[in-house]
Amino acid sequence: DAGVIQSPRHEVTEMGQEVTLRCKPISGHDYLFWYRQTMMRGLELLIYFNNNVPIDDSGMPEDRFSAKMPNASFSTLKIQPSEPRDSAVYFCASSLQQGTYTFGSGTRLTVV
Amino acid sequence: SQQGEEDPQALSIQEGENATMNCSYKTSINNLQWYRQNSGRGLVHLILIRSNEREKHSGRLRVTLDTSKKSSSLLITASRAADTASYFCATKHEGGGNKLTFGTGTQLKVEL
User: Fold this and answer.
1) Cβ atoms < 10 Å from Cβ of A21
2) Which residues of A touch B35 (CB under 8 A)?
3) pLDDT single digits (tens) B39-91
4) What residues 66-105 of chain B have any CB closer than 8 A to a CB of chain A?
5) Is the torsion defined by CA of B47, B53, B55, B59 positive or negative?
6) Rounded distance between C-alpha atoms, residue A14 and residue A107, angstroms
7) Which of B43, B52, B48, B54 shows the shortest CA–CA distance to B33?
8) Residue B110 near residue B83 (C-beta atoms within 8 A)
């Protein structure tokens, strides 16, 4: 298995632009998680899905952030409009039932 | 916030020495997990200990859990330069669904 695949690996965008991050979980995993990592706040859970249904989005910082999981093999995290304070590394992870997480390599987002 | 605290924040040791990292958390847990993160990479699961367990071993790793003190420790024996990474504890809390809350991390540097 190729593991959890995230794209792009790096994204540099201008303030106000829309940003879309993508994630392909491990085949057969039924949970998908989006985390954000910054020096100031560490790893924060943004949202997680179970069987493509959002279960807990209490970590989504504001309405500018949205996440979808249209099918079991794909999820997106969208920021519109982006702001410099959104600069961070965004991780996607998946798990089988309530097992341990497998993380992707992350997307490093820089908003200038 | 349920985020755990880890100490020390940074640890530098010589190859062959043992490294001990500590984690404290705030509310009752179902299990506690340790993850490693190499620079610029995603997190990798190392070991899981359930709330009814006190100690667990995996290769050179030894984890202890004291639920009365709400704390855990990770011991890496006979450290190697390849162990250089950040180490995070993560807790799954009772009533918290399938989400993991990550600690602040310990940066370990193992020098030759």
Assistant:
1) 22
2) 101, 103
3) 999 999 999 999 999 999 999 999 999 999 999 999 999 999 999 999 999 99
4) 88, 92, 97-105
5) negative
6) 16
7) B48
8) yes
